[in-house]
């Protein structure tokens, strides 16, 4: 009798839990079903239409966004299997989530980065994120950026010297740009010379590339979404790659701390502040902010990840747009030439401020081909957006690629036109119709760093070379991954000036 009572109590407990779970699921899906979006198939949702590559995914999203906007909707729902994504389609629909001071939690797609980046600034939330953001903001002060520009200039010179021997035939310039960006971020973030440009087979360089490939497979190969499949098929590769990347960072941090403690590093004198790496500033902050070595590693690896993958994507797309729009390239070169003439001198911060047309070229590139094509928030409370309630636990995808291709904000939106960013043409748009670095509280802390690097590296390439291709700009399809990846790479022919 006692056993029957115990069994009945246990059964009743789990039936009650199941009831409340199903009630919550029903409530959630009732709200989500009201949001317009493409019709899905039972169990699979829109997964078959999305396809198994980032390129088919991007094409489907762009098509669906156009269809929903044509119906007068500014919010869209897409089903990835059982998982719903709510996607705002214009600046006005983005405003509630970007302006929110409560909904700051990142979405599920960031989970793959936690073993590498931990809960650093990119992924952390609530109190930890706020304290880290407050702590790190001064490290991107103008005075610190001046010192970073010197390092950007040094590695960009190496890049154009390497490219000097590559002018005889078409080449994919993207890997060269990426290795240069990796050298820049390693120097500025850790104060260490990686020299990826001369040693592309360095273990850390290879590990970063392999991790990006693994991230693509986990995101876009459907059977990797099945619980347990990844652990049994690819987890060992992920662990090996992560050990290489984090091991490298940990060693650099330990060596740098030792140098600080021994007094081997001296930042006094006329060059004060200019030679400090991001890591040096974190080490100096560690006592005041109670940072452990692991806390420092999280932030350094976050800066390493965000500071080379996104900028290299942005630079690659700028070079592609210049090669496929020769009249724009001509104007950009004339501006660069007016600043530098035939000299081979270094580029300074003042020089970067003196090239407004090149900045418009970069902005227009980031509109058509945003280096970061999307970010996500998981709402922790029921969230109202216009006429809709987005239930707690749902991911909102802030898809820059879609918002930047809103024909109402940007007529003829696939046309490359830097003059869109003349002051007179920019004032009529909603503030959130153009958000290459996101916006609101969780905007990109390193956006000025990224713009400086993109402008400087492109200026160096234009000083030395003209870029040519017989392909059209839109023949190079874009894939929305962690960054916006070009299907063809960036195949151009360089001609020495």
UniProtKB/TrEMBL annotation:
Top-rank lineage group of the source organism: Eukaryota
Matching InterPro entries: Cyt_P450, Cyt_P450_CS, Cyt_P450_E_grp-I, Cyt_P450_sf, Cytochrome_P450_Monoox
PROSITE patterns named among the record's database cross-references: CYTOCHROME_P450
Transmembrane segments annotated in the record for this chain: none
Keywords: Heme, Iron, Metal-binding, Monooxygenase, Oxidoreductase
Cofactor field: heme
The keyword Hydrolase is assigned to this record: no
Gene Ontology molecular function, alphabetical: heme binding; iron ion binding; monooxygenase activity; oxidoreductase activity, acting on paired donors, with incorporation or reduction of molecular oxygen
SUPFAM superfamilies, sorted: Cytochrome P450
Binding residues for heme: 444
Record-linked PANTHER family: CYTOCHROME P450 FAMILY, CYTOCHROME P450 FAMILY 4
Family designation: Belongs to the cytochrome P450 family.
The protein's name: Cytochrome P450
